[in-house]
């Protein structure tokens, strides 16, 4: 049974991936400092799997602590690196924290992986690396333009670091960069889901909290974009579908089937939906009426972006399975368990 270290494994995407890893026959090892996650996620994972998952409460930017995990967990076969700050708007307000955490944790991880001869890495990247694209949908060959936020720049820098390390003559690292679009929804059991600390930065938890009466209303950030209805367009992928992409990526690395030492894949549905479409689909899927209004634009937001997901389907054999309506219904089911 291959051990896979999952940094940020108690977070939103991390927790769902830990479940999928375990159910696929891997032994996940969680590393998380719980700065942006809740310990309740561990109970949810245990409730789904029927057993605890080994967990180390450390900051993976702390080399000594991370080295201790690799010593305590011998024979780690690969790493999935989620641990990062991820809010576009917050990164505009706190750029230094984003660079220190997102870039610093990757540098530390790569050094410790090299020390312990762990050669397989799945890196959590983002469609923000494309900046404001000239054409849609974006493919993996779409040029990366200046990012619209410090968060996006950290992901660009991390990709550059991985590529530079991989180009070194002594390199043994094999990496798959997964460029995520917008994960939403929750596990079908409603035992784990998106659990923002404080006011949500992401659209869907703000929608569900508004429907639940926790928020007075949803303010849509901008209604004057150059899109059909004036609101941002994004590619919304169910979080379990996204988690499954990691399982395929890990196995590809362990089987050494990659065509290069670094491979890059978009992980999205291939469809773009506007914020208003998401709101209306949520109302239809859940029979909940939302109180919402149009507000000013949010700094760092790109008007529209969605994936060409052809490469992931052709090379990885990965394709999303869950509709927007079902994804939103699962998010509402999860929200109802939190009341």
Automatic annotation (TrEMBL):
Keywords, ordered alphabetically: Carbohydrate metabolism, Isomerase, NAD
Database matches in PANTHER family: UDP-GLUCOSE 4-EPIMERASE
Keyword Cell inner membrane recorded: no
Entry-linked Gene3D superfamilies: NAD(P)-binding Rossmann-like Domain, UDP-galactose 4-epimerase, domain 1
Organism listed in the record: Hymenobacter negativus
Classification lineage: Bacteria, Pseudomonadati, Bacteroidota, Cytophagia, Cytophagales
Domain NAD(P)-binding: 5-326
Family assignment from sequence similarity: Belongs to the NAD(P)-dependent epimerase/dehydratase family.
Subunit structure, as described in the record: Homodimer.
Top-level taxonomic group: Bacteria
EC number: 5.1.3.2
Protein's pathway: Carbohydrate metabolism; galactose metabolism
Reaction equation(s) it catalyzes: UDP-alpha-D-glucose = UDP-alpha-D-galactose
Cofactors demanded by this protein: NAD(+)
Protein name from the UniProt record: UDP-glucose 4-epimerase
Any one GO MF annotation of this record: UDP-glucose 4-epimerase activity
